[in-house]
Amino acid sequence: MKAETAIGTVSWSRADMIAKLEAFSELYRRRPIPDNEGGMRSQHMFLTWFALQELQPQAVIESGVWLGQGTWLIESACPNAQIYCIDLNLDQIQYKPKQATYFNQDFATIDWNHLPKEDTVIFFDDHQNAYERVKTAKWFGFKHLMFEDNYPAFQGDCYSLKKVLMQMGHGSAGTHNPIKSIVKQKVKEVVGIKEHTLTEIRPNEVDAAYLKQNLEIYYEFPPIYKTALTRWGDAWNDERYPTPEPLLQTVEKEYQAVYQAEATSYNWICYAKLR
Ligand SMILES: C[S@@+](CC[C@H](N)C(=O)[O-])C[C@H]1O[C@@H](n2cnc3c(N)ncnc32)[C@H](O)[C@@H]1O
Q: In this structure, is residue 182 part of a structural domain?
């Protein structure tokens, strides 16, 4: 299995990230949805907020809104950005800033011509095929992408960039945990997932070669803490789950505790910059 966790280099350092952990823990206390079951927790929220603060885009597209906690996070990180929110089910949203624009159709079907492509970040948390998302984003001319659910090989419900780079495919050919058809149907009904998400992808080198040709940067954010076991209950080792070194090892200050308590919600969240 291939174990790359980065292509190219980002403009920030680990020290920059560690320096912002305390400030974010204060913001996290004020989140509008205290228990965001089904959405991001402190680790990914910190990493997303950090990256958006660094990138300071003019516009952010959020695909996969759920209750709206991510929208609040985007607004907090980039108060002056235009925000475009996409979800196939807009009825569940609890936090809705006035300045955000909402769509209930897939990212690929929306006219983005008016947006500054070089200065827009697309935050995908919609559990769709990330490899296809990269191709569509490139077609539109976008440069900056983030993927919240960047599942490692053998895990998760969508073909992620990490899976592409691990070259192990997705679905029954590339997972130890095949999604049963009845569950597939249920998931599709509830969240409107498109068929291609559930399609088997054979292990292959071609998709990885495409990413390496087209991405200037692929960067897996480090977890804040790493635990002995993964969220799936097996050993969190680098052989099966190649992972950047965590930012912290032990809890030494009170504000760090929340990050450790929610450590298993980490899912190899990544930033990708198209050439
Ligand atoms: C995991 S939740 C998003 C969580 C959210 N980012 C948060 O942290 O609170 C996934 C969301 O994706 C939505 N979704 C499913 N298919 C989608 C699509 N094609 N485009 C946009 N959203 C989609 C679902 O309705 C669901 O609300």
A: yes
Q: Is residue 246 one of the residues assigned to a domain?
A: yes
Query: What's the CATH number where 264 sits?
Result: 3.40.50
93 lines ligand 1 (CB under 6 A): no
Ligand 1 atom nearest residue 45's Cα:
8
- The pTM (predicted TM-score) of the whole model is 0.93
Segments forming the whole domain that contains residue 106: 6-274
Looking at the CA of residue 149, tell me the nearest atom of ligand 1: 1
Residue from 125, 128, 147 whose mutation best tests the ligand 1 pocket (most atoms within 8 A of CB):
125
Is residue 19 included in any domain, yes or no?
yes
Q: Tell whether 1 is covered by a domain.
A: no
SS (H, E, C) 179-197: CCHHHHHHHHHHHCCCHHH
Give pLDDT, residue 217.
98
Instruction: Give CA–CA dist 69/67, Å, rounded.
Output: 6
Overall average pLDDT of the 255-263 stretch: 98
pLDDT in tens, 158-190: 999 999 999 999 987 655 444 444 444 444 555
Tally of domains in the chain = 1
Please tell me if the CB atom of residue 40 comes closer than 6 angstroms to any atom of ligand 1: yes
pLDDT band at 151 (very low <50, low <70, confident <90, very high): very high
Query: Ligand 1 pocket: which of 44, 61, 62, 66 to mutate (most atoms <8 Å of CB)?
Result: 66
Average pLDDT (198-217) is: 94
C-alpha 37/C-alpha 73 separation (Å) is: 16
% of the chain exceeding 70 in pLDDT: 90
- Cα separation, 56 vs 195, whole angstroms: 34
With tokens 């198209």, the residue in question is 274
